[in-house]
Amino acid sequence: QVQLVESGGGLVQAGGSLRLSCAASGSIRSINDMAWYRQAPGKQRDLVAVITSGGSTNYADSVKGRFTISRDNAKNTVYLQMNSLKPEDTAVYYCNVRIRTILYENNYWGQGTQVTVSS
């Protein structure tokens, strides 16, 4: 079994910062790509940022220069540092991690954490 536990969401004023964390645990042999998605009310879930096992990163255009994704392989954790937050960043943020267990490789989702940015 694999579990992803997210933390760090909350309410912040425009221009503020938040740091999200997503920790994986369970029968993990290796972790490949780690990513953050977000879903605003009434909208589809969109990719925000991704980091490969080698440390390469990619960002949605809307967050480039404001958000930073990073990972701590020793802790099986991915982070999303969000600076200069805007009201349009308000959404539920989900981590998505590709994990290889003894039996198979699969993508796992976190439970989601609410980020609300007030104007």
Notes on the structure:
- By secondary structure, the chain is an all-beta fold.
- The protein contains no helices and eleven strands.
- It has strands at 2-7, 10-13, 18-26, 30-39, 46-51, 57-59, 67-72, 77-82, 91-100, 105-109, 113-118.
- The strands form two sheets. Strands 2, 4, 5, 6, 9, 10 and 11 form a seven-stranded mixed sheet that branches.
Keywords:
seven-stranded mixed beta sheet; mainly beta; four-stranded antiparallel beta sheet; 11 strands; single chain; 119 residues; elongated
Write a compact overview of the structure shown.
With 119 residues, this protein is mainly β. It contains no helices and 11 strands. The chain has strands at 2-7, 10-13, 18-26, 30-39, 46-51, 57-59, 67-72, 77-82, 91-100, 105-109, 113-118.
Number of strands: 11
Q: Low-confidence segments, ≥5 residues, pLDDT <50?
A: none
Helix and strand string, N-terminal first? EEEEEEEEEEE
Helix segment tally = 0
Structural class: mainly beta
Largest sheet report: 7 strands, mixed
Cα radius of gyration in angstroms: 14 Å
| Overall residue-averaged pLDDT value | 97
What is the overall shape?
A: elongated
Topology (elements, then pairings):
Elements: E1 2-7, E2 10-13, E3 18-26, E4 30-39, E5 46-51, E6 57-59, E7 67-72, E8 77-82, E9 91-100, E10 105-109, E11 113-118
